[in-house]
Amino acid sequence: HAKQQGKNNYQYYAASMNAAALERLNLENQLRRALSRGELQLYYQPLVDAATLNTVSAEALMRWRHPELGMISPAQFIPIAEESGLIVAMGAWAVKEACRQLRHWQHLGLRPVPVAVNLSSLQFRHQKIDELVATTLQETGLDPSLLQVELTESAIMQAEEPSVQMLVNLKELGVGIAIDDFGTGYSSLSYLRRFPIDTLKIDRSFIKDILQDADDATITRAIISMAHSLELTVTAEGVETEGQLEFLRDNGCDKIQGYLVSAPVPAAEFVRFMQSPRGENHSAAREASF
Ligand code: C2E
Ligand code: MG
Ligand code: MG
Ligand code: MG
User: Fold this and answer.
1) CB-CB neighbours of 160 under 10 Å
2) pTM to 2 decimals?
3) CA distance 65 to 43
4) pLDDT of residue 11
5) β-strand pairing of 70-72 with 255-256
6) Per-residue DSSP letter, 236
């Protein structure tokens, strides 16, 4: 009896404990196939000049359109991709896809704006990312200044010498380099000076309550002025309101990105955005609509 009960208990626990792991394993296996099945897609979100509201660049953000589960957000699949190592192949795909898309837009005659691709720290450890980018630029014939990369502050803090060298090589190719989610990683700007970066992106968590929280406002102002003294461009992430935009503009932030301007959208929709008055000159569109 005891044995029987023990076995049942075991099965019970095994079943409940494994549910999460099994689901994860499933997702991991499905993610493995997602690439070859064309289920991954890049969405594009415009970044606009804070003063003129002209679209000056875009960020490519990965989406997974699962055949049964529908759209799965990066918050769910990027951690799985990183823990399984799949991010290396997925990240390489993203670089190539963004370059291919940029070339396509050039053929359509769209006003060229640089596109930023997010890179995982794993790509620096397990991939010659500088060589991948160089080869892709060569194959597509794309102007290197149209490609940018984003690395999170925490990723850059873990970077060891070979990764730093790859960043230097990327910079020498003419590719722009941004630090993503800045302010969350407790790094100092003097430390970041060692890296060949062009842009700091202030994390959304500081922008969110910028009008209510005096500390967030102070930190944001300090980041902007320190970044400028190091000749870095500053982007604010997650700008959702006119008030936030006004604060950022008044305090000299260079670029803004957020739902106020546009959510990330599929490539075709991004083209429509760029061709609309909002894409060409957001401020003109605002004047027209108010
Ligand atoms: P991230 O690089 O910091 O991207 C910005 C995130 O903020 C995106 O989330 C974007 O949709 C969201 N966002 C933009 N504006 C607003 C706003 O006004 N309000 C709010 N609440 N959110 C806003 P998303 O697309 O879900 O991506 C989440 C994260 O997943 C990214 O953060 C990035 O770290 C990672 N990720 C996405 N695509 C890739 C990729 O191709 N490779 C790698 N390694 N990571 C990626
Ligand atoms: Mg990013
Ligand atoms: Mg970010
Ligand atoms: Mg983020």
Assistant:
1) 9
2) 0.91
3) 12
4) 58
5) unpaired
6) E
At which residue do the structure tokens 């994390």 appear?
203
CB atoms within 10 A of CB 131: 11
Amino acid at 285: A
Question: For each successive 10 residues of the chain (290 residues), what is the average pLDDT?
Answer: 52 60 80 94 98 96 93 93 95 97 96 96 91 97 97 88 93 97 82 90 97 96 94 97 98 98 97 86 44
User: What distances in angstroms separate CA 61 from CA 41, 50, 119, 194, 247, one per listed residue?
Assistant: 8, 21, 11, 27, 26
Residue (of 179, 108, 184, 105) closest to 143 by Cα position = 105
Ligand 4 center to 146 CA (angstroms)? 22
Pocket test for ligand 1, best of 31, 42, 48, 61 (most atoms within 8 A of CB): 61
| C-alpha of residue 15 to centroid of ligand 2, in Å | 37
Residue 197 CB-density burial (10 A; 0-12 exposed, 13-18 middle, 19+ buried): buried
Q: How far apart are CA 217 and CA 198, in angstroms?
A: 23
Measured by CA distance, the residue closest to atom 27 of ligand 1 is 74
Ligand 1 pocket, Cβ-based, cut-off 6 angstroms: 45, 61-62, 73-75, 78, 87, 91, 94, 118-120, 150, 180-181, 204, 237-240, 257-259, 264
How far apart, in whole angstroms, are the C-alpha atoms of residue 138 and residue 174? 13
Q: Which residues contact 123 (CB under 8 A, 6 or more apart)?
A: 87, 88, 91, 92, 129
